[in-house]
Every structure is written in structure tokens, then in C-alpha cells.
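Section 3.1 - Work completed
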Amino acid sequence: MSGFFITFEGPEKSGKSTQARLLERYLTKKGFSCLFIREPGSTSIGEKIRRILLDKRNTHLEHTTEMLLYMAARSQIVKEIINPALQQNKVVICDRFLDSTIAYQGYGLGMDRALIRTIGAFATERISPGITLLLDMSKSDSSFKKTANKDRIELRSRRFHDRVRKGYFCLAKQYPRRIKIVRVAKTILATQKEIRRIIDTCLLKKS
């Protein structure tokens, strides 16, 4: 692979999509060929799976089914978008990837994390991000509580979301060279400034 793969991770409403799109514009202005995608989604099949996963009416979706649906959408996006883009020397910026499944279904739901990793390696064809930006808000942040029209995942208990957050920190400790924790600042631009500093360093090393 000749391109560069960047992923954004973090708990609900941490600003991943906003920061990812700002980074895409920044790198495009610097002359990189960039592509922003989201998980699950960004493919016709992936978007259909996304609707199933986030539909709050699907209250009886089994945990195993949930995990496998995320993997199915991931397999599709790797084959259809990520692999070809990296081969074309593009910078791929993805809102969530395999770390999300480990954090949400592994730590959050208590599923077998070793099994998730095994299935994940198969679904992703062992593609791994060059850098992962983990956005973290203060635990006392109340913006999530105020969110209206929450989806099926967002409606889960605060304890579930606390386990997810702790899971992300565990992953960051396991992969400190890849996963960089970015504390969400008071302003979007302040957070973006730190993200750009990290990415500039990574891309300079790559070149």
C-alpha cells in the first residue's frame, strides 16, 4: 500500500466527523489526494447495514449479530473503497474502524475480544491504520445527555458508554505508537490544531 490510512475513534458526540472533515480539507489544501469515509457506511451495502444497526426499533438485535454486521460493512468498505484508494496513493480518512468494534462490542458488551480481533483481521484483510486519533471528552461533559433523537447505540446505558471509553484507553495503552489521544478542547479549531500537529509529524515521517 502506498497511501496513508488515518482513522478517528472516540465515544459518542466527541466530534469525530467534524474533525475528520476539517482534516480532509487541510490535507487537500496541502496537496494530498484525500478521501473521507465513515463506518459503517460509505458503500451502498454499508449504508443499508448502518440503518439496521442504528435503528432504535431493532431492540432484539443479538450482540453477535450486531458485531458481525459491523464486520460485514467493514469488509465491503475495505474491498470497495479503502484498498483501491490506498493503492492510488490517497490519504484515506475514516470515521471509525476496527477499534470501534473492539471498544463497543468487546469492552462495552463484554464480547470475546480475541474473537473480535480474529474476525476483524479477516474482514479487513489485515489493513491497519497508520495513525488513529482518539478523541476524548471529559467524563463530565453533558452534551451527550442533551442529544435528541438518539440512535440504538446512543440509547444504551451510561455504564455501557463508560465501559466503551475505558476500552478505548486500554487500546491506546496497547498501541501507543498508533493511537494518539486528543483531548477535545473548548473550541473545534483548538482540537483541530492538535490533530494537525500530530498528522503533520506522521506524514513527514512517512515521506
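Second construct:
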Amino acid sequence: MSLFPIILEKLSICDPEQLGFNKTMPAELNSAVEKFIKIKKIQGAVIAVSRKNSPVYFEAHGFADTHNKVPMAKDSMFQMWSSTKPVLGVAAMIAIEKGLFKPEDKVSKYLPKFKDIEVAVLNDPKDKDISPLGVYAEIGGETGFFTNLYWKIWSWFYDGYYIGYIPEHRLVKADKPLTIHHLLTHTAGLGTNGLGQASASWNAKLSSGKGGGKQEENAFLYNLTIGSLTDLISAGPLDFQPGSRFAYSGFMGLDVVAHIIEITSGQTFDEFVQTNIFDPLDMKDTYWNVPSEKFDRIVSISGGGKDGSKPAGETKFFSGSVGLISTARDYLHFENMLLNKGEFLGTRILSEASVKLMSTNQSGDLFSQTEKVTKGAEGFGYTVSVTLDPEKVSLKRGTGSFGWAGAAGTMSWTDPENDINVVIMVQQPTKEFPEDIARIVYNAIIK
């Protein structure tokens, strides 16, 4: 029996044993969260776990505002960062189902400026085109002779990476057209911290926000949209040949897809997502721009460079990559729809075929090669990583599980093999915390 939609004021939690979990799982999860709070790895968390369409764990721990001792609540709102990306993935699948575009379509079909985009390669050797794995420098950030020499020596220890300076380079033609498939799988080479991005004039402009003065700078940043961003980055160059490598585009690649959705649907991306995803899934606390009456529910991040931070003002930049703010409840609804093969409470959001397409490894061995995970352990679908072999991965979940995470620590996934959804809402990123949560849930399954 489904206990969705979740009404927090009347939240009903099922007995773990009735859903095939060890009865100790809730206590183990409580202990794990409290341990990480005690050692100050996280300020607090909201963790939600469901199985067979029923919540089996939903608890808030720690503080939403450490400085003012405001307790974390089950409806606390979190900055999702790259946990925004699976929403874009679902939006793209909906658009594909509507016949708005196909994954194999050329980006230039909808954005003609991408047609002749080039690829940045090292100037030497001349007879071989080499695209570095990473270049961590930018135009306008050049250093003096001795500092530059220091960074060159440092870069020798990191084969394939250039740190602190931009190596001499040239541009070559892309050997195949850039496609929507490349963007959805992070195999496009667009905005992946490589030589193309480092040497691009648009990167310097985005990094500095310069437009000739503070007033103009503020206007440029305030008026940035996914349309104006796409127009900027269409000049290229790419970081590598399309389809030749997996390299994560944290901010940009998926925004091009979001803008193509705008062009083909006639709606702004936020409107498309609201009408096709948020409204039918009853995701009533998920926004790019949080209403003023809900603003005090946003977690105030404690520690690091974002200490005390909350989103500043309204944005016109409705990104497919970052920017959403949401709750554990809303994201559990989202994951539950995916677990039910595209359906939520009798309403079909996606076809089973679309969910399968999104959650199937679409990148061959490219993901494991770049991310240095064991071959055959993990792959990458459309905006989500996919577990191929649970015995070879550190994040324990069933074969075919899929999901993604955000830079501030949020993570969620769907495990179809075991009929499980997990949503982890935190605002401090750690490798160990989600691994501990996943291990407890996975090991609690009564075989």
C-alpha cells in the first residue's frame, strides 16, 4: 500500500521488518548521523528512505542554523547544487517523448552557432591532437615568469593536467557533430575544466563577470539566462573531441539541453519543469526562487567558504545544472516516480522506456576510465550514474541503481532491484557520510 504523497504533519512510518529490513536499521541510521554531527563533519541532516512505496525512515537531525541554534526540521529546505541535474534528465526524457527532439540530434539543429565549433589541442606535437585532461588557469590570470615556471614544474607531477597556466595550443575541427546525447552523458567536452574552457574568452567573462565596471558587471550577472549563456559558449572551443571521453560538466553542458527544451517547447525551462514535473509530483517546496514566506526554512550553511550563506536574491538563470532548492519530501516523491517506472499516484510522468533509457549506462567504459573506478563497476546514463556491479563500488546499492549528488552534500538514488529510494539532505560534502548511509540501508535488507 502506498503512503504517498507524504504529508509531514501526518507522517506514517512503516515497520522496517514488514518491508523486509532488519529492525535495527532506523537505530543504525540515527547513530550514523549523530556520529557525523558529533565529529563536526555535518551540521545536520534530513534522511528519507522508502521501500515498496512506503516510507520506512524519515528523520531530521542537528541544526538548520548552527549559529542561532535552530533545529533541523523534516521540511527544511536545502541547496541542491548538482542534485538539480536529474531533474533536467527527466525533463529531457519528457521532451523526447513529446517529440521535441531526439538524443542523437545535432545541437546545431536547434542552435546553429554550434555548427562549426572547434576543439582545443596542445600546440605540440603538430602531428597529433592532444587534449589535456584538465587546465586550471584562465585568460587574464597569467602570472609572472618565476611563478609561471613554478606552476609548470608542479604540472609535470600531474600527467595530463596543467595548473596555473594555459599551455600553447591550437584549434582543430570537431571530428563529429556535437549531439544532445553527448551533453546528457558529459561526453561533449563543453565546460569540463579543460584546455578549451581555459582558453575561451567566454570563460574569462563568466569567471570575472567583467563588463567594464561594477554597474555593468552586476547587470551582466543579473541578466544572465540559460539562453544568453548558451549564446556565449557556442563560440567554443571544446575541451576534447565529442564522445571521446567522459568529463563532468558541472555547469554549462546541461544548460544547453535546458535551453533546447525552451526553444522546442515554447516554455521557459522553469515553466516546463513546473508543469511537467513539480506540479504532478506535488513537489510544492522545490524552486529556483524561493517565496519570501518560505525563506526562513532554507538551511543556513555552517562552515567553509559558504558559512551562513543562503541564496542571494531572485535569479533569471533557471539552470539545468545547479540552483534548485528543495526538501527531502519533494525529492523522495521525485525518486519514487522513477522507482515506479515513470508513474506517481496514478499519474504517468514518463514512459517505462524513458526511465530505462535514462537509467541505462550510455557511456560505455568512458565513465570508469575517467573517474578511475573499477571497470564494469559503474556507468553513466542520462544525467545519473548507474551501478553495474554492487560488489565493486563503495556506494552500496543494488545492480541498476541510479542517482546523483550535489556539491553541498545532497545525494539521492533509486534502487529498482531492491525497490528502494534513498534521499540524503546535508549541506557539507563528505565521501564517507553517504557511503555509511548506503551501507546501512543495503546491509539491512533481509535476504
